[in-house]
Design a protein that fits this description.
By secondary structure, the protein is an alpha/beta fold. Helix content is 24%, strand content 26%. This is 3',5'-cyclic-nucleotide phosphodiesterase.
């Protein structure tokens, strides 16, 4: 299993900042932020599954454009895996004929998109690759994901504030190699982090204290303009944790 970072920023600004999306091998996306826009038409056609963490625009904005760009070139619908609550939001607020066509209903003889509900702790297997929804705590219904090749796992928290249930699930993963964890704000905006159910360096340290295993840790979803400040604060807190910033175009092998 090869995981390519298409985008991992908490916003846009500059040629290198793309919002969250990861390409798993050639046919699976985890989230569909603006990073998807860098894929070619040929690459977009190969995507069969999209696993959505939550409905916020920076994680779903390219979903509408994928089906619009290549839906008529494919012989089967793009399958969107998400919680029932997230699917309801996508139906009501994006694919609603007002913001974008409902491609789960059109074309009538061959819809471009299909929804597949997923529940926390449920595992979806795609050609021996196992993707499990993990608990998260955000302002809208949200999950993280464990990607398991069988020999190693990567965990992506998605957007989350403090969430003991997330760590309870992560602590059960025996083959964890990489942990991608959000840290959206610096500590000077801790109040905003708390209100919006995100993490900042001091909150992240409290979360990591619940972790019982070891893996390589990368922080993601940093806000443009605050990246250097946030990483400086993390460096003062990190102690035993060697925290690195997730980079666009980074590749993980499992």
């Amino acid at each position: 299993m090869k995981i390519r970072v298409l985008g991992c920023s908490g916003g846009i600004g500059g040629h290198h900042l793309r919002t969250t999306s990861f390409l798993v091998d050639h046919d699976i996306l985890i989230d569909a932020g603006t990073g998807v826009g860098d894929l070619s038409i040929a690459e977009l056609r190969q995507i069969d599954h999209v696993f959505i963490t939550h409905s916020h625009l920076d994680h779903v904005t390219s979903l509408a454009f994928i089906v619009d760009a290549v839906g008529d070139m494919r012989d089967r619908p793009l399958i969107v895996h998400a919680t029932e609550a997230t699917i309801r939001i996508l139906r009501e607020h994006i694919f609603n004929w007002l913001i974008w066509p409902d491609f789960s209903q059109t074309p009538h003889n061959k819809p471009f998109l299909a929804y597949s509900p997923i529940h926390v702790a449920e595992t979806v297997t795609v050609d021996s690759r196992m993707i499990t929804a993990l608990p998260a705590h955000h302002t809208v219904p949200a999950v993280g994901y464990q990607l398991d090749s069988g020999s190693a796992s990567l965990v992506f928290s998605g957007d989350t504030g403090p969430c003991p249930e997330f760590w309870e699930a992560v602590n059960k993963i025996q083959n964890l190699r990489y942990l991608l964890i959000e840290c959206a704000f610096p500590d000077q905006e801790k109040e905003l982090a708390v209100q919006s159910l995100h993490l900042c360096p001091s909150l992240l340290m409290k979360e990591l204290a619940q972790w019982q295993h070891e893996a390589e840790v990368f922080v993601t979803h940093l806000k443009p303009g605050q990246i250097e400040m946030t990483m400086q604060e993390l460096a003062t807190y990190s102690g035993a944790y060697h925290l690195r910033i997730l980079q666009g175009h980074q590749v993980f092998d499992l």
